[in-house]
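Hey, quick one: can you model this chain's 3D structure?
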Amino acid sequence: MSVRIGDLRRRLTIERANDTSDGAGGFLRSWVNDGEVFAQILPRRRREALDTGRVIGMVTHVITVRWRDDIDGSVRFKSNGLNYRVRSVEDADPERRFLDCWCEEEQP
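Sure thing. Here's the predicted structure for all 108 residues.
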């Protein structure tokens, strides 16, 4: 897939996971704003899964951003009330101009 800089039209907020101890051996996760990027979002597939007895929707997307080395599975993108959890990343081209992030839309 050939991406042009003009294809990156959606402004997304980058959020990083911040895990703190809950005092009982577990942790509490909060999300901390870590800047903004422009991106292209392409939906790839939709599926359903069972989570604690209820059906939840899972939508997979490829989000393309300008190449950077700080995007990994500990971040998510946020846009218009939707959260996209990064599952994996790969170089979109050999010159490291763009980065493809395979994401899962988090359903409420």
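One thing worth noting: The chain has a mean pLDDT of 88.
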